[in-house]
Amino acid sequence: MAKTILRRILIMLPQLILVSLLIFMLAQLMPGDPFYGNLNPNSDPATIERMRHAAGLDLPWYEQYIRWVEHIFQGDFGTSYTVNRGWSVTRVIGSRIWPTLSMGVIAVILTYLLAISQALLAARHENKWIDRALVVWNTLTSAVPSFVFYFVMMVLFVYLLPLFPSSGTGIEDGQSFIVNFFNNLRYAFLPALTIALFSTNSIFQYLRSNLLDQQAQDYVRTARAKGVSMKLVFRKHILRNAFLPIASGIGYSITGVLGGAIFAETIFGYPGIGALFVQALTGRDYTIITALMLLQGTLSLLGGLLSDIISAWVDPRIRVK
Amino acid sequence: MAEELLEARDVSVDFRIKGTYQTALAGVNLTIDRGQVLALVGESGSGKSTFAMSIMGLHNPELTKVTGSIQLNGEELIGLTEEQYDQYRGNSVGMIFQDPLSSLNPLMRIGEQIAEAITVHNGKAQSVSEHVLNLLTEVGIPDSDRVAKQYPHELSGGMRQRVMIAMALANEPDLIIADEPTTALDAVIQSQILDLIKKIQQKKGAGVLLITHNLDVVAEIADEVAVMYAGQIVEKAPVERLFNNPKHPYTRSLLRADPENVQAGGELYAIPGTVPSLSEMDHHKDLFLQRVPWLDQKLVDADVADTLTEIEPDHYVRGTAWQDFAFPDEQEIEGQS
């Protein structure tokens, strides 16, 4: 087990380097430089050149890359240009991470709870009306763009039936952690529930068909032939086997939480990482964009790692000897 | 007189396919004595496994209708509730399946899977793990404590089949059903497994229903053979008699199609066609005759009772077609003489 994980981490290192290189290249490809929009058009070209030199922008790209990586290792991602002008990027992201985390965790938990219970219900009543209804519902939610549902939820639970606040995170500077925590829950719950309600499809479909598929497997027949009742066979044999493919997605779901939810955060006016990304893009805040992309890339890699660990933990066949 | 263990009388199985019931097994009569190995042979689709599943009560009740009578130690099995059936599956009857890899739960340790067979009937006890190790040793697995902690994918095919056998034997069943137990194994392992089944059967005095399409397997361990075609028994006899003096055209064709029986330079006989699909089965006829192209159409279409005739002691054959049946090359020889 430890070997499997170690091997997986070693594979991750070159991937991480590749991701950072790609992101750096993309940033280099973007037209202009950080001084472009911020300088008086009448500035002396020599002054601009001096500033570029001071910032190291006249160095060859690989030296710039190495400097960039060095700074990152020191926790320095640069300074925000437009979103929170003058703040360090780490501070900007730090201020958004908690709301995103709280909403994301609730959303992931609710998504799995909803999807699993729907799948169990559907598989138990295969081809009955409840099964068909759940299949149609899940197909519908994945076919219609999610933001359509978000607006509907917004109208229903904020406007028509005002149970939840319309925007914000409920977090205030100077408040104690406990107060912020509980205030935030009220704000985070509606977007989280909304995300969960309409993103059950893939887990639902996978689990439902796995449950049906596993029931027809030979090992189920063997267990029945031993005299194990169907109920017990379901609990001890079928469930765990049916959950395998789901387990491999959980890692991505967990790390994906920190990536934020662009549509939900924007529509519900909930300023987390997703909303920050949109702001940074529209404001061309390059330092924030690159930092977020790097965060996103790292999270994807970590998600893969986590998924592999979970898979190896539940499935003995995957463990490397 | 041997003690009768299993008696199946007029067992029929109908599968519901698209709303209508279609007969897969039509009035099968078979008995197995204690200490006897009965081989049930026939090609794929002839209903062998369907019969085994009826004994185990493992057909899907919503899609299957099982009628007739199956008695084990004098107790009727057909009509038992699921709960009653659970008590006797794995307890009085143990079953060994064909593909030991897919037949074992990939996520459960070998020891746990065998232990489950014990605890489900006897409750949890401290002696269970010891019992598991004894079973593993009994089926010829060295190093049983290590194997008990392994997962199915870590074992070879032969070892997995030994595990299946250990599982089937866990509660010392009176009847062991082995459904193609050696099909997935290579020749050497195959005969090891057969030896093991035979050895255990003799030691415990259990009855064995061996389902196979491999006649060499039959010759190796069976006492009696029943030949099945399209859901009906067509011939039944003690093993030597069946091999030396086969009567029914199907039995004769099967033996002729066995590579072992080809003389040097001779051509291997292949039975033309396949077993008809369920919807095309008319069980009032001798269905195999459709696959004998040189036979008189009148004989093929003739109605045949589904009872067997005892043509000599313990040798039963269905219908009368066997009396006139000959392969084309045999007819020539007869003509010459």
List keywords for this structure.
heterodimer; A: 321 residues; mainly alpha; MetI-like fold; 13 helices; globular; B: 337 residues; alpha/beta; Rossmann fold; 33% helix; transmembrane helix (chain A); membrane (chain A); transport (chain A); MetI-like (chain A)
Describe the structure.
- The complex is a heterodimer of chains A (321) and B (337).
- Chain A has a domain at 93-285: MetI-like fold, CATH 1.10.3720.
- Helix content of chain A is 73%, strand content 0%.
- Chain A is built from 13 helices and no strands.
- In chain A, helix 4 (89-124) packs antiparallel against helix 5.
- In chain A, 28% of the residues are buried.
- Chain B is α/β, with parallel strands linked by helices and 337 residues long.
- Chain B is built from twelve helices and twelve strands.
- The longest helix of chain B has 18 residues, at 187-204.
- Chain A binds chain B through residues 217-219, 221-230, 232, 236-237, 240-241, 244, 314-317, and chain B through 56, 58, 82-83, 86-91, 94-95, 97, 99, 102-108, 116-117, 120-121, 151, 153, 164, 167-168, 170.
- Chain A: It holds the Pfam family BPD_transp_1.
- Chain A: Keywords: Cell membrane, Membrane, Transmembrane, Transmembrane helix, Transport.
- Chain A: Residues 97-307 form the ABC transmembrane type-1 domain.
